[in-house]
Specification:
The complex is a heterotrimer of chains A (247), B (343) and C (292).
Chain A lengths: L4 E10 L2 E11 L4 E5 L6 H8 L7 E6 L2 E2 L5 H6 L2 E3 L12 H10 L5 H6 L7 H10 L15 H13 L5 E5 L7 H18 L2 E5 L3 H7 L2 E6 L2 E6 L1 H5 L2 H8 L2
Parallel strand pairs in A: 3-8, 3-9, 6-7, 7-8
Antiparallel strand pairs in A: 1-2, 1-4, 4-5, 9-10
Helix pairs in contact in A: 3-5, 3-6
Chain B lengths: L1 H5 L1 H17 L6 H26 L7 H17 L4 H25 L2 H21 L1 H4 L12 E2 L2 E2 L3 H24 L1 H11 L1 H6 L4 H27 L9 H14 L6 H10 L1 H4 L7 H15 L3 H41 L1
Antiparallel strand pairs in B: 1-2
Helix pairs in contact in B: 3-8, 3-9, 3-11, 3-12, 3-13, 4-5, 4-6, 4-11, 5-11, 8-11, 9-11, 12-13, 12-16
Chain C lengths: L1 H31 L6 H19 L3 H28 L4 H22 L15 E4 L2 E4 H23 L1 H11 L1 H6 L4 H27 L5 H16 L4 H21 L7 H13 L14
Antiparallel strand pairs in C: 1-2
Classes of the chains: A alpha/beta (247), B mainly alpha (343), C mainly alpha (292).
C-alpha cells in the first residue's frame, strides 16, 4: 500500500543553522501520527517544509506517491492536504459560517463560477454540518473574532476539515485550550478519523493528549528523528527521556 | 428601535428612498446642481473600485486617480475620433483592467509602505505622460468638446439626460461591485486582507486574487473615468494628478473602508459638502482636513464605523436597561417568595 | 566638462537637502512607524514661519530665523507627535497615513489662505556669488548648502553613534521592547527623533527657499523626493538616506540636461520602482529577515 504521506530525508538550513537535519517518515491511510520533541527541535519547520510554506534545502515529499515538493500551499491544499497553525489563525472579520465556507470554496468550481455562481458556493449545508459537528451552532453567525479562545481553536480545526481532506497536519491543536475543551477536541478528532478514515499528523506538547490520540509517535531532537514507536514504547524509551531532560 | 436600525427592512427603505430621491431630484435642481450630483456619483464609482482593492483585499493603492485619468483619456480620445461611446466605455475598463493587473505584480513582492510608494510613483508617471505626450494627449491643453453619447436614439446631451445616464451607469457598476463582494471572491478578498498565509493554506490562490483585486479595482476606476469624460466635456492632465489619487484614498477611508456604502459617503464629503457649506468657502479644505484627522483619531473605521458604533452603543444601553429591568423583576420575585416563605 | 561639473555640483547641493529631509523621514519611520506624508509640507512651512515673524512681529531676518526654528520644534516636533502621532499609533499604519495626508492638506491650505498663494522671495543666508572652479561656474549657495548639510549629517552621525544618547535612540529604533527592558526611556527617545526631524526640515527649508522661492506647493516635490531618497538608499539606515538623497539630486539634474527636461521628474520615479522591485532593502540596506 502506498503511504498517504511519504517524507524522505528532509533538510532545512537557515544560513549556518540546520533546523531540520534529514528527517524521513511516512503515514498510512487512517493513521494518526504524533510528532513530539523539545522546543526548537524543528517540528514546525518540518511542517512548513512538508506543506510548501518553506522550501526544503534537500529531500522530497510525496502525497499518495506523487512528488509534491515545491508546490505552493494552495495547490497542495487542493490535492487534499490541509493544516492548522501553531498560533490561532481564523479570519476575525468573517462569521463562523463564512470562515468555513471560505475553507471549502476554493475546492469547488473555477474562478469564473466562484465569481458568477452562488454566494455560498453551495457550501452552506456542509458548513452547517461542520458547525453542528464541532458544536458551534450557537455562534454560527457571529464574527469569529468575537469567539472565546477555545471556540476559535475548534473553528480553526473545523476549517482544516471543511474540504474533506485526505491528510491533515495539526500544529499544536491543544495549545492554550482548557481541559473540557481539550477532551472535546480529542473526541471530535477521533470521530472524524473513524468516520472518514482521514489521516492525521499532529505536533503536540501536551503528552497526555498526544498519547491518547495517536497510533504511532516519532520524536525529534535537534532536527533529527531519535525514536519512533507506539505511545507505550515511546513513554519508556530512555533516549526520549534523555532528550527531554538531558541538557 | 436599534434592531430596526440594523434590520434589512430599514436598509432597504433607506436605499429605496435614496433611489427615488435621485430620480426625482433633477426636476427640482438647476443644471449646476445636477452636474454636482453626477460628479458625486462618478467619484463614488472610482472610490468603489479602490475600496475593492484597499478596503476588501487590503492592498494599498495610491494610483486610483491615474486609472480614472486613463479611462477618461481613453473614452475622450476615442469618442472624439468618432468611435461609438459604448465601445469607448468598454475599452476604458478593459485597458485599466490590463494596466491594473500589471500594477498588481509589485504587490506580490512588497507590501504596506513599499506598495504605497510604487503605486504613488506609478500615478505620478501616468500624470507626466499625460502632460508630456502631446501627440497623444494634447499635453497641458487637455481634451475639449468631448461629445455626450447618443444611445439607441436617446441623446444625453442635455444636463438632465446626462444625469439620468450617469445614474443608470452608476447603478449598474455599483451592482457589479456589490455582486463581487458578496460572491466567494469577496470572501477570498477579505481572507487575503486578514491573513494571507492562512488563506493560502486553505487553497486560496492569493497570487491570483491579489492581481484580480488590483485589476478589478482599477477597471472600475477606468469606468469612472469613462463617465467623467462626457460629464465635464473638458479636462486636462491636472485633473488626474496625484491629488486625485490621494483624495480617492481619503474618500474610501473617511467613508469606511471595507463597507459597501462607505465610498458613497466618503465621496459626498469630498464633492457635495464643500458646495453646500458655502459659508465656509475657501476654508472648507482646512476644516475638512482637521475633521479627517479627528475622525482618524477617534474612529479609524470611518463614518460608517462611527454609525455602527453609535448603533451598538444604543443596543448596549437597551440590553443593560433590559437587564436591570429583569434584575428588578427578579428582585421583586425574590422578595415576594421570601414574603411567602415568611408566612 | 565644465557644464557637467556645474550640473553635478548643483545636483549634489539639491541632493544634500533631499538627504536631510529623507533622514528625518526615516528616523520617524524607524522609531514610531510614522510614514509622514506631510514631510514635504514640513519643509515648506518653516520658511513661512520666518516670513510671518518678519511681517507680524516686525523683527529682522536673523531673529525671525530663530523664531522659525523654535516654532518648528514646537509645532512640527512636539505638537505633531503629541496631537497626531501618539493618539493614532494604536490604530496601525494606514489611519496614520491618512492623517498625515490630511495634515499636508491642512498646512498647504493654511499657508494659501492666511499668507499668500503667490511665490514669495526669500532671503538667502549668505550673499550669492559665482565661484570659478576648473572653468565651471558654481554658485556660492551650492557650496554653502553642501557645507551646512555635511555639517548637519556629521553632527547627527556623531550624536547617533558617538554618544550614549544616540545609542539609546538607535536601540529604541531597532527594538523598543528590549530597549525598555534595558531601562532606556523609550518615550523620550522617540520625542527626540521628532525634534531632530523638526530641526532637519527647518534647516532644509532655510536653504531651499531662496532657490525655489517660498510657495505653498513646494512640499509636493520635496516630499516625494524624500520618500524616493529614503527608499532608494535603504529604509533602515541613516547613511542609506544620505546616499539616496545625493544620488537623487545628481540624477535629477543630469537627466534634465542630458535626457529630457520634461521627464526630469520621471527618472527618479523609475529608479524608485526598479529599486523597490529588485532590491527592496535599498542600495545600502540589508535585507530584513523574514519568518513564516
Amino acid at each position: 500500500m502506498t503511504p498517504v504521506l511519504q517524507v524522505t530525508n528532509i533538510r532545512k538550513q537557515f544560513g549556518g543553522l540546520t533546523a531540520v537535519d534529514g528527517v524521513s517518515f511516512s503515514v498510512n491511510e487512517g493513521e494518526i501520527l504524533g510528532i513530539i520533541g523539545p522546543n526548537g527541535s524543528g517540528k514546525s519547520t518540518l511542517f512548513n517544509c512538508v506543506l510548501g510554506q518553506l522550501q526544503p534545502t534537500e529531500g522530497e515529499v510525496r502525497v499518495d506517491g506523487e512528488l509534491v515538493t515545491g508546490l505552493r500551499p494552495c495547490d497542495l491544499n487542493r490535492l487534499g492536504v490541509s493544516r492548522t497553525f501553531q498560533l490561532l489563525q481564523v479570519f476575525p472579520q468573517l462569521s463562523v459560517r463564512d470562515n468555513l465556507i471560505l475553507a471549502g470554496q476554493e475546492h469547488k468550481g473555477s474562478m469564473g463560477t466562484r465569481l458568477l455562481g452562488a454566494r455560498d458556493a453551495g457550501l452552506t449545508e456542509a458548513a452547517n454540518r461542520m458547525i453542528e459537528f464541532f458544536r458551534l451552532s450557537h455562534v454560527a453567525d457571529e464574527k469569529a473574532g468575537g469567539l472565546s479562545y477555545g471556540q476559535q481553536k475548534l473553528l480553526d480545526a473545523a476549517m482544516a476539515f471543511m474540504a474533506g481532506p485526505r491528510l491533515v497536519l495539526l500544529d499544536e491543536p491543544a495549545g492554550g485550550v482548557n481541559l473540557t475543551m481539550l477532551s472535546h477536541l480529542r473526541e471530535r478528532l477521533q470521530a472524524i478519523n473513524a468516520e472518514q478514515n482521514a489521516t492525521f499528523v499532529v505536533i503536540e506538547h501536551n503528552m497526555e493528549f498526544v498519547m491518547a490520540l495517536c497510533d504511532r509517535i516519532i520524536v525529534l531532537a535537534e532536527g533529527k528523528v531519535i525514536a519512533e514507536g507506539t505511545p507505550d514504547a515511546i513513554r519508556s524509551n530512555p533516549e526520549v527521556i534523555e532528550a527531554y531532560l538531558g541538557h | 428601535m436599534m434592531d430596526f436600525l440594523t434590520s434589512r427592512a430599514f436598509k432597504g427603505t433607506v436605499f429605496a428612498l435614496l433611489m427615488v430621491g435621485l430620480i426625482v431630484l433633477p426636476f427640482f435642481l438647476r443644471p449646476f446642481g445636477l452636474l454636482l450630483i453626477a460628479m458625486w456619483m462618478v467619484h463614488a464609482v472610482a472610490a468603489l473600485g479602490l475600496n475593492l482593492t484597499l478596503g476588501y483585499a487590503g492592498q494599498i493603492s495610491m494610483a486610483q486617480g491615474a486609472f480614472v485619468g486613463i479611462g477618461a483619456y481613453c473614452t475622450g480620445l476615442m469618442t472624439l475620433a468618432g468611435v461609438p461611446y459604448p465601445i469607448a466605455f468598454l475599452c476604458s475598463g478593459v485597458l485599466c483592467f490590463g494596466i491594473g493587473w500589471i500594477l498588481g505584480y509589485p504587490a506580490l513582492r512588497v507590501q504596506h509602505h513599499y506598495l504605497a510608494f510604487v503605486t504613488l510613483a506609478f500615478s505620478t508617471l501616468v500624470f507626466l505622460i499625460m502632460r508630456n505626450e502631446e501627440w497623444l494627449t494634447n499635453g497641458i491643453y487637455g481634451l475639449t468638446d468631448i461629445p455626450r453619447p447618443i444611445l439607441f436614439g436617446w441623446n444625453t446631451g442635455k444636463a438632465q439626460d446626462f444625469y439620468f445616464f450617469t445614474l443608470l451607469m452608476t447603478s449598474i457598476l455599483a451592482f457589479c461591485v456589490w455582486w463581487i463582494i458578496r460572491s466567494p471572491w469577496g470572501r477570498a478578498f477579505v481572507a487575503l486582507r486578514e491573513n494571507p498565509v492562512r488563506a493560502l493554506s486553505l487553497g486560496v490562490d492569493t497570487r491570483r486574487y491579489t492581481l484580480m483585486a488590483f485589476a478589478m479595482g482599477s477597471s472600475i476606476g477606468g469606468f469612472a473615468g469613462a463617465l467623467y469624460a462626457p460629464l465635464v466635456q473638458f479636462f486636462e492632465p491636472n485633473s488626474f494628478s496625484l491629488t486625485l489619487s490621494l483624495k480617492l484614498l481619503l474618500m474610501v477611508i473617511v467613508g469606511g473602508a471595507g463597507t459597501f456604502f462607505g465610498p458613497f459617503i466618503g465621496a459626498a464629503t469630498e464633492v457635495l459638502l464643500p458646495e453646500w457649506l458655502r459659508i465656509a468657502q475657501g476654508y472648507y479644505l482646512i476644516i475638512y482636513a482637521m475633521l479627517v484627522m479627528i475622525l482618524m483619531m477617534f474612529c479609524p473605521t470611518g463614518i460608517i464605523g462611527l454609525g455602527e458604533r453609535f448603533i451598538s452603543h444604543l443596543r448596549q444601553k437597551k440590553i443593560s436597561s433590559e437587564r436591570s429591568a429583569q434584575a428588578e423583576a427578579m428582585g421583586q420575585d425574590k422578595a415576594g417568595n421570601n414574603g411567602g416563605a415568611g408566612q | 566638462m565644465a557644464a557637467f561639473i556645474q550640473l553635478f555640483v548643483s545636483g549634489l547641493a539639491t541632493g544634500a537637502i533631499y538627504a536631510l529631509v529623507a533622514v528625518g523621514f526615516m528616523l520617524l519611520w524607524q522609531t514610531s512607524q510614522t510614514i509622514n506624508f506631510a514631510q514635504g509640507e514640513f519643509v515648506m512651512i518653516p520658511a513661512f514661519f520666518v516670513l510671518w515673524a518678519i511681517k507680524i512681529l516686525g523683527v529682522g531676518f536673523w531673529p525671525a530665523v530663530g523664531i522659525a526654528v523654535l516654532a518648528s520644534l514646537l509645532i512640527l516636533g512636539l505638537l505633531f507627535k503629541r496631537a497626531i502621532v501618539d493618539p493614532m499609533l494604536k490604530h496601525g499604519v494606514l489611519p496614520l497615513v491618512i492623517s498625515t495626508i490630511a495634515l499636508s492638506i491642512f498646512l498647504k491650505e493654511a499657508v494659501k489662505d492666511f499668507y499668500s498663494s503667490q511665490a514669495q522671495p526669500f532671503q538667502a543666508m549668505i550673499p550669492s556669488e559665482d565661484l570659478h572652479l576648473f572653468g565651471a561656474v558654481i554658485s556660492s549657495q551650492s557650496i554653502f548648502i553642501l557645507l551646512i548639510a555635511s555639517a548637519a549629517v556629521l553632527g547627527l552621525n556623531k550624536l547617533l553613534n558617538g554618544t550614549r544618547l544616540g545609542r539609546a535612540m538607535q536601540a529604541t529604533a531597532q527594538n523598543p521592547s528590549v530597549a525598555r527592558i534595558l531601562g532606556i526611556p523609550v518615550e523620550r527617545m522617540i520625542m527626540y527623533t521628532f525634534l531632530i526631524n523638526a530641526l532637519l526640515v527647518a534647516l532644509a527649508s532655510l536653504m531651499i527657499s531662496p532657490i525655489y522661492l517660498a510657495k505653498f506647493t513646494n512640499g509636493d516635490t520635496l516630499g516625494l523626493a524624500a520618500f524616493i531618497a529614503a527608499i532608494v538608499g535603504g529604509f533602515n539606515q541613516v547613511r542609506g538616506a544620505i546616499v539616496g538623497g545625493l544620488i537623487l539630486g545628481v540624477i535629477e539634474n543630469l537627466a534634465a540636461a542630458y535626457i529630457s527636461a520634461q521627464y526630469r521628474g520621471a527618472i527618479p520615479l523609475i529608479l524608485l520602482i526598479v529599486v523597490i522591485l529588485w532590491r527592496p532593502q535599498g542600495l545600502m540596506g540589508r535585507a530584513e529577515e523574514r519568518t513564516v
